[in-house]
Write a structure and sequence with these properties.
- There is one protein chain.
- The protein is mostly helical and about 55 residues long.
- The protein has one domain.
- It is about 70% helix and about 0% strand.
């Protein structure tokens, strides 16, 4: 939703997706979960390696 908020109001996107605006705001303000961090770590490592390989 954040990628499209310049084009559409958050309230409209929330309604279309069947979520509440307040729930979306609460989700965005929460810190990343340990599970989310574990899933993201390999992606970040691959990106770092790719950047270093390019020189």
């Amino acid at each position: 939703m954040s990628a499209h908020q310049a084009d559409f109001p958050i309230a409209t996107m929330a309604r279309v997706l069947g979520v509440s605006s307040s729930g979306y705001d609460a989700w965005r303000s929460r810190p990343a979960s340990a599970h989310g961090n574990r899933r993201l770590a390999p992606t970040l490592r691959r990106g770092f390696v790719m950047v270093r390989c390019r020189g």
